[in-house]
Amino acid sequence: MSHGLVEHLRRSGDAASSADELLTFLETRRSVAMTLLTDPGPSKDQLRRMLTIAARVPDHGALQPWRFIVIDGEARKQASERLAPIFAAENEAMEAAQREKFTGVISRVFTHAPLIVIVVSRTDPAARIPAWEQDLSAGAVCMNLLHAAHALGFAGTWLTGWAAYSAGGHRVLGINAGEKVAGFVYIGTAKEMPADRKRPDIDAIVTRWMSDDVMRSLKLSG
């Protein structure tokens, strides 16, 4: 834990208790499917706070290589309906019944949750910071936004899908040439909380880099 966070928690009360509550929150937060999200959504002030927190991420070079598009209210239905014919036109080779089914899904895609925030990655290829690091920063924005939403008592999920990669979809949503969708973050109140999914076995994915001296010692002792 950073010194700054420790000091903040100490000033706010019992540092050990507050730190444990924060860690428990991080250990138990989980995504909620968009179809399990409903009203109420965040207020204007709550949304502003969420986005402010979302933007507090590592950003090498202070480039701000991301921005937000907010879809709420009646705009959710209109945006979904405008995407549907684009999907149908871009997928003419799909079997007719399947295309009709998925076009219907797209026509409602933003209507499930009260709020959708599109996190747009706007990488600057001329910057001295590698494009990959700029993309990672946009991904961190998505994760921070989810944490902020859940910390304020809401639920959410981070998705992509067809519209994230479709040129026609980008035109409908106002995503400019050269920009990418880092994620559609759906936010609302959970109708029900799903059971936790299987999590990684940490021992299976962690290795420790060892110095030559340690490696020699291990070989000798073996």
Care to describe what's here?
This protein has helices at 3-12, 15-28, 44-54, 75-90, 96-106, 131-151, 162-165, 167-173, 202-205, 212-221; strands at residues 37-38, 66-72, 115-121, 155-159, 180-190. By secondary structure, the chain is α+β, with helices and mostly antiparallel strands. Helix 4 (75-90) packs antiparallel against helix 5 (96-106). The two termini are 37 Å apart. Mean pLDDT is 93; it is low at 1-7.
In DSSP terms (H or I, runs of 4 or more residues), the helix count works out at 10
Tell me, briefly, the overall form. globular
Order of secondary-structure elements: HHEHEHHEHEHHEHH
Describe the biggest sheet?
Answer: 5 strands, antiparallel
Percent strand: 5-15%
Q: Mean of residue pLDDT?
A: 93
- Show unreliable segments: 1-7
Ends apart, CA distance between termini: 37 Å
- What class, by secondary structure content? alpha+beta
- Gyration radius (Cα, Å) is 21 Å
Helicity range of the residues? Answer: 40-55%
Beta strand count? 5
Provide tags for this entry.
globular, 49% helix, five-stranded antiparallel beta sheet, alpha+beta, 10 helices, 222 residues
Give the SSE map.
Blueprint: H1 3-12, H2 15-28, E1 37-38, H3 44-54, E2 66-72, H4 75-90, H5 96-106, E3 115-121, H6 131-151, E4 155-159, H7 162-165, H8 167-173, E5 180-190, H9 202-205, H10 212-221
Antiparallel strand pairs: 1-5, 2-3, 3-5, 4-5
Helix pairs in contact: 1-2, 3-6, 4-5, 4-8
Short overview:
The protein has 222 residues and is α+β, with helices and mostly antiparallel strands. It is 49% helix and 14% strand. The protein has helices at residues 3-12, 15-28, 44-54, 75-90, 96-106, 131-151, 162-165, 167-173, 202-205, 212-221, and strands spanning 37-38, 66-72, 115-121, 155-159, 180-190.
